[in-house]
Design brief:
TIM Barrel, binds iron/sulfur cluster, Sulfite Reductase Hemoprotein, domain 1, disordered N terminus, alpha/beta, five-stranded mixed sheet
Length: 333
């Protein structure tokens, strides 16, 4: 399965034991259902590497095998059909091990992602740069690229994540200046769902606005589906992916409806629909349609009844309790 380079794809990582094929496949299916494009699985032992072939038989998206320390796990994962290998060449032993992985990937035509994290920086680079800096991160990544290039391997993706948002952004900007390889971007160990999503949106958003990034991962301490949903919202907010965009007002003293409940219900009922539309839920009919005039469709609370509007123009007055239902009917959803 080829991993596209032409559009920004969303990655997530399973949290199941990879060797538990049934649980891993079930989680990947849930990820597929919410729009995950590429999934990564941890391969901490031979059992996990062996499981890759049966996992692959039951899923529809490319699978990346995440390997640390033991190059034999990478070789087995490649043999079992992984679509990409993520390694830090600095921690898989001697250069012969790296060469063996490169040759195996080349024979199968699959890429390697060099994944450097701030926690895995070489001691000599930490000393040279006085700690974890963008320069140190980039030097580490490029050193690994050079090593793979020595073995005539060029099908490379790069990542250089840190948990510090400004440092991550500086690192990727520098990396982009110095190399053309596709980049997997994200803020690592971003935290729990709320703060992790905000940190990721700031870091990933800044980079994507600079045109930097080919695949993204929102790294959250939450169910992985939440990572995918957050990533989709980031891409939609930047105009990089279609879909239903729900906008809703924060409400104020003019509000006539329960905006929060209606917005949440509308979002839930439109989830997964393959439509490129902006839908607004606004608290009042006086300002709502005007404030949300860019929305394709919208709901606003009126005096005793609600209104449905399209592109700022009122198209129907509806009893309050039927607002969402009627909107969906008009949208033919
Ligand atoms: Fe207030 Fe109406 Fe604007 Fe919502 S749309 S914030 S209720 S003025």
């Amino acid at each position: 399965m080829k991993i596209e380079k032409s559009r920004i794809t969303i990655q997530s990582m399973t949290t199941t034991k990879t060797a538990d094929t049934a649980a891993t496949v079930a989680q990947i299916k849930r990820l597929e259902a919410v729009g995950c494009d590429i999934v990564r699985v941890a391969v901490p032992n031979m059992e996990s590497a062996e499981a890759i072939s049966s996992i692959k038989e039951n899923i529809n998206i490319p699978l990346v095998a995440d390997i640390h320390f033991d190059h034999r796990l990478a070789l087995r994962a490649i043999e079992r059909g992984a679509d990409k290998i993520r390694i830090n060449p600095g921690n898989v032993g001697n250069t012969e091990n790296v060469k063996a992985i490169a040759n195996a990937c080349k024979a199968k035509g699959i890429p390697i992602r060099i994944g450097v994290n701030s926690g895995s920086l070489e001691k000599k680079l930490l000393e040279k740069h006085g700690g974890v800096t963008a320069e140190a991160m980039v030097e580490s990544v490029l050193g690994h690229v050079k090593l793979l290039n020595q073995y005539d391997f060029d099908d490379i993706w790069l990542s250089a994540k840190t948990s510090d948002v400004p440092l991550t952004v500086r690192t990727y900007r520098l990396l982009r200046e110095r190399t053309d390889y596709p980049l997997h971007i994200g803020v690592t160990e971003a935290g729990t769902e709320y703060s992790g999503t905000i940190k990721s949106a700031v870091g990933i958003g800044a980079l994507l606005l600079d045109g930097i990034g080919d695949t993204i991962r929102v790294s959250l301490t939450a169910e992985p589906e939440r990572e995918v949903i957050a990533a989709k919202v980031i891409l939609k907010a930047l105009g990089l992916r279609g879909g239903i965009d729900i906008i809703s007002c924060p409400t104020c003293g003019r509000c006539n409806i329960d905006v929060r409940e209606i917005a949440e219900e509308t979002e839930r009922r439109l989830e997964g629909k393959s439509l490129n539309l902006t839908v607004a839920v606004m608290g009042c009919a006086v300002n709502g349609p005007g404030e949300a005039s860019r929305a394709d469709y919208g709901i606003a609370g009126g005096d005793g009844e609600g209104i449905i509007f399209a592109k700022g123009k009122i198209i129907k007055k509806v009893p309050m309790k039927n607002l969402t239902e009627e909107l969906l009917r008009i949208m033919e959803c």
